[in-house]
Amino acid sequence: MASKRTTTDGVGAVGEGTAKKKKLNTKTKTRKKALKATSFVEYLKSEALVKDYFLTKNKNLSFHWANWSETCEYQKEFLFSDVSNEMKLKNLNDELFELKKTEVWLKNKRGCVKMSLYDVYEAYLDNRLRMTWFERDGILMSFENEAGPYMSLANMNWFNKNIYAAFMFKKLLTKPIPFRGFRVGMEAPIAGKFDNSPLNSVLLRLHQASEYGVILKVEGKNNLAKLENSETIQLEIDVTPFLETKDGSFEDIISRFEKYNFETNKGKNRRTVNLSTSIMKKFNNDRNAVSGGGEHFYFFVPYTELFKAPQHQELQSIFSNFVKKVKEELDSELKKAA
Questions:
Q1: Domain check: are 163 and 207 in the same one?
Q2: Does 204 lie in the same domain as 229?
Q3: Any idea what the CATH number is for the domain that residue 311 is in?
Q4: Mean pLDDT per 10-residue run, the chain (338 residues)?
């Protein structure tokens, strides 16, 4: 776990007056209100492993324990600190083991082999097997029997993102944990156009934000193919609540995002950015894109690329500081429970 940090709540000097005390009390109440529905630590201890922790009632902002090394470590320590706590992991294992009852047949030119759906997911988690089995069209899969009918394994029609997430959570809890930077979850819509053509429009989502960049989500293989075959993609990003809270506290962020509707609001601060699709060749995006299982595809864009234009560069620090403020608040809650 990271070393403890001293936190303050902006307490003023004694004798500065009743008005300032009232302001402080209001701020403290706001913080408690923002986190009281289900506290962050309660979420880590009691919620199902696959659930998100929603920071706002409208679900604009969320967090999952697997998206930060600190909470991965906390979850591991908590689960294995007491036998009764291990029930969460046991329940997860029991659900996954049910997949062993589902038989599938894989076939290529060399022959056919029978295995369980559980084995298929395990193979998908292995980077070497993913490249040889799932990124080529030569392997077929059947849920019926050895005679078929068959479908291409690479088409990912067998894939379920919730099952995949459960396997990933199990891996995080039972294997050595690589460093994972803090990420805030979002699903803010972003209008896009390939090669600046209105005939090639696409809807993306701002899926997650870290201190260094965002993870964008695009739906469907057709849109992924367009992304890979275009030279540029123009994005229209609503940055209204980010700008309005750039100098605010964590409580200000929660209050503003809780009232903001990305789907219906035509925010006064929409920024149009042009992004080279060469981004798909960087940051392992070409490989990470396949992890959506044929439904959703994800790729990382650093702020230095997304907000490269001089008129947008201020957004690099605004987005990064937004994530830092959320991280610091959750870190404070985590340290209190340590």
A1: no
A2: yes
A3: 2.40.10
A4: 36 38 43 55 79 93 93 85 77 91 92 94 84 79 91 86 85 78 95 90 95 93 86 95 96 96 84 92 73 74 96 97 97 86
Residue with tokens 């500081």: 321
Cβ-count burial of 331 within 10 angstroms (0-12 exposed, 13-18 middle, 19+ buried)?
A: buried
The conformation of residue 130, written as its DSSP 8-state character, comes to I
Terminal CA-CA length for the chain? 10
Owning domain of residue 245: 184-337
Cα–Cα nearest to 272, from 219, 245, 308: 308
Q: Are 167 and 148 in contact (CB under 8 A)?
A: no
- As for how many domains the chain has, the answer is 2
Q: What is the pLDDT of residue 13?
A: 35
Q: Are both 190 and 165 inside the same structural domain?
A: no
Task: List, as own/partner pairs, every contact residues 279-286 make where C-beta atoms lie below 8 angstroms and the sequence separation is at least 24, other chains included.
Answer: 279/305, 280/227, 280/228
The DSSP line for 259-288 is H--TTT---S-EEEEEEEGGGGGSTTHHHH
Query: According to the model, what pLDDT value does residue 180 have?
Result: 80
